[in-house]
Fold this protein.
Amino acid sequence: MKSNNIIQNWIIELKGDAYVHTIVPKRFSRVWRKIFRMIPNVRGSVFEVGVGGGKHLIQFAVDGWEIYGVDCSNDVLKRAFSYISKVKILDGNEMSVCDFMDFQTKNKYDLVFHVGVVEHYRDNNERLDFIRKIFSMVKDNGYLLSIVPINIPEKTPGVPEIDYTSDIMREEFKKIGGKIIKIFPHNLKGIFASLPIPIEKYSSTLVGILQKIDE
């Protein structure tokens, strides 16, 4: 599916009451705390590709980060503004509506991430271009974070996905460059983490952390 088709289909998917959040978190969720144990020194500015309803960015806002982002849907971004403004006053320039591949900025960020976006780019070259662009926005010694759903039987209607694996993510990271910090499956309960079983098979989320090394 080509990029412009992905965007148009997402705009349709995100109408109605998609990604409406109301409860303000008091701290980062368990998976985010696990991530920060692997990159303990990162702090400052964060950019999310595909803001959705603001579920992830609001955790950074609560923690005092400078938050930025982009989403293709004006409908869902309005929900994000309303949600995040409960803990942080937004000036209107911190989140933008557009196709990320058309987004232009000279700014660099300590952490740039997406949750459940890149897997919809089923063309290998388009997917690599997407990740490469994210990486270009990372500060030296900052991090790219890619979080994708895996082993999910119910796909997003109208916006097909590839079946991501750690091998696919690792090969893509190698092509981009930088230092692979960790690629790991995250099980929602975490009960299989210490057992000698193929945990990726029983996980619902795959997390990849790539650092941009200061040369």
Observations:
- The CA atoms of residues 153 and 204 lie 10 Å apart.
